[in-house]
Amino acid sequence: MFMTEKETMPVIEMAGVNKWFGDFHVLKDIDLEVRTGERVVICGPSGSGKSTVVRCINRLEAHQSGRIAVDGIELTDDNVSVEAIRAEVGMVFQQFNLFPHLTVLENLTLGPVKARGLSRAAATERAMRYLERVRIPEQAHKRPGQLSGGQQQRVAIARSLCMEPKIMLFDEPTSALDPEMIAEVLEVMTGLAEEGMTMIVVTHEMGFARRVADRMVFMDAGEIVETGPPAAFFAAPKSARCRDFLDRIL
Ligand code: ADP
Ligand code: MG
């Protein structure tokens, strides 16, 4: 298959991005480009700025200098660009953020009906298709509280997919899960990657990273310290900070 020019262009571009929380310099000159279909895994110690990077990409946080563009849309303060970007970027959090008082199906149809103007029938059809994809169609009429953590996270992924995003951001999607539920969520994410979804995943699941990542990014103290293909990254990290980190978690 030939790639169009658009597909070879970076779909996420961060160039010289800086952000402060008050006096605290949380992101320092972040440069990160992600191409269509690319899978990037970000790791690094707690507090290094990983969540802030992904939150800046869909404008849950605003950066103060540098440039962020998503699918060619420049991220500025105007509401139009923020809405345009949120329409293209799905996000899955550590905490599943499902509406507890709605059924699984209602959680999935809400966005497509309210934000995309789909009919209820079309939204339901779409929701069931994505529930099949995360392999829990039989849970459609339960409330989130009746599901296991792994099932709830799969619902959260399906809910994002119902908005048909071009890019999926995952921020430690398995960190709140019991060990026996981590695999089922990683399996769904691996399937998405195999289907060509553009993904940024913040995770410390290094087995998943080795299998799925095209590129690893290591952050420490607000900086991207090291980046590279997983084979080289794991076999021979260049920086002492990255080596120390990997020694601690592997
Ligand atoms: P990570 O995801 O790598 O653990 P974060 O991006 O969540 O790191 O946070 C980076 C740093 O910024 C941490 O020191 C955190 O305490 C701080 N921080 C995060 N969000 C805020 C906020 N809203 N206000 C002030 N400080 C924050
Ligand atoms: Mg975080």
From TrEMBL:
CDD domains: ABC_HisP_GlnQ (cd03262). SMART domains: AAA (SM00382). The keyword ATP-binding applies. The keyword Transport applies. Transmembrane segments: none annotated. Keywords: ATP-binding, Nucleotide-binding, Transport. Residues 12-246 form the ABC transporter domain. One of its GO terms (molecular function) is ABC-type amino acid transporter activity. It comes from the Bacteria. Belongs to the ABC transporter superfamily. This is Amino acid ABC transporter ATP-binding protein. It comes from Pikeienuella piscinae.
